[in-house]
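Good morning C.,

I know you're traveling, so I'll keep this short. The sequence:
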Amino acid sequence: MEKIENLIPMAVFARVVETLSFTEAALTLGMSKSSVSRDISVLEKRIGAMLLKRTTRKIEITELGLSYYQHCFKILNELRAAERFIQEYYEEPTGTIKILAPVTFGKRYVLPTLNTYLKRNIMANVVLDLSDKEVDIKESQYDLSIVVSQSTPTHEYTKYLCTIQWGLYATPDFIARMRPILTPKDLPTHSYILFCGVARTISLPFRKEKQKINIDIHSRFRSNNSIALINMALSGFGIAYLPNYVARESVAEGKLVRILPNWQMDEYKVWLLTKARNTMTSGIKQFIDELQQLITSAEFKDPR
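The tokens, ready to paste straight into the viewer:
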């Protein structure tokens, strides 16, 4: 029969060898010094040999003790692993995370991340507000806020996520009906599909090496929803000005074509704002890590 009663004394012996101190071993194991000494004596009695030479000034390990320690070390490591498992179990994300995210970016990246996160953490809950509204996160109900902006937010706890490029897209049939577009100056001034803005005209910026050109255009259709914009573009209604990641799938399928792909246009950055450092629960940290991994694996390049 296996000597199960030896397991704890073996772990105690390993800790004494590592610290070369009964007192320190007792402290790290949460035991009394007398209990440590008793366990070592019991172990030596069962083995029938001395493992440690004790003097008033120091502890020496016998030759047998050094060899035996290699086996006891494994026992101690298993105990540590068991402790880590219990600790991680109780640190499993729980509670509710309240997140504010832009509609389009939230649907494309936040929702898939949350799907994975909630499946993995059955005790966690999420309230997701998909909205393009702006809030002061410090004064809001949200734990996290995702912001798309050309400038860096002034909020103290801000994390950069990615950069989004914009471009012009239209169906192959629509492009075939236009005269050749070789430079921004060849673009028509009408039939544009744009996100909602304060004015009905807009100046589109173009950059290529040292060249910078702004072209004034007129939109016939505006919406605050990218699905509506891309659907209008796919219907052949006009030229849509869109974030490139929104158009990527339609470009890959040959339904839309990027116009003037060698010219750069608007560039926005995506930021993650957290309320404060002391409110970063394990659940929030895990969600942020998983969102960053998904974004990193995505291609935020111009679809050509």
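Safe travels,
E.
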